[in-house]
Amino acid sequence: MGQEMKSAMTMTMPLEKEIVLTRVFDAARALVFQSYTDPALIPRWWGPRGVTTTVDKMDVRPGGIWRYIMRGEDGKEGAFNGVYHEITPPERVVCTFEFEGNPGHILLATVTFDEHDGKTTVTDSSVFETVEDRDGMLNAGMVAGATDLYDRFEELLATLSREGKATGADE
After folding, report:
1. Does domain 3-163 have CATH number 3.40.640.10?
2. Among candidate residues 33, 43, 22, 44, the one with its CA nearest the CA of residue 143
3. Domain map of the chain by residue range?
4. Per the confidence metrics, is the pTM higher than 0.85?
5. What is the pLDDT along the chain (171 residues), one digit of tens a residue?
6. Where are the beta strands (DSSP E) in the chain?
7. What does DSSP assign to residue 6?
């Protein structure tokens, strides 16, 4: 798949402690939501290329916890975790996000899924506790990492669509 086929991700900072990433995917909202919340699919797209992601925990319900472990080609590991606050299929996921290598710096992510004409816009709003936390995430390569992650997500959605794996979830 050529780069010209991929939709561009946009980044805005509407509030001082917020980063909003938006990307349009050529897939139905039910499939996008399923792929975002299915622990069997997370390792196929979560994280940048060249890393392997393992889902340690993923209890997709309010109060449920998630934890992913990424392992680089060099064998180094990093883990991420959070707590789900809201799950509204197929519209919205709200959870915390923390990199275990820098504990105590927790953001609140609100991800919405909006479908128009068979395409789904994913909007990921991250609200940080401080401007320094926001800047630290940006300086750690958040935008490049998210672009790579969303490229992989788009490739997975195309594969699942070809395989006819779309769900029958209510719109």
Report:
1. no
2. 22
3. 3-163
4. yes
5. 344 456 799 999 999 999 999 999 999 999 999 999 999 999 999 998 999 999 999 999 999 999 999 999 999 999 999 999 999 999 999 999 999 998 999 999 999 999 999 999 999 999 999 999 999 999 999 999 999 999 999 999 999 998 886 544 433
6. 10-12, 18-25, 51-58, 65-72, 77-88, 92-99, 106-116, 119-127
7. S
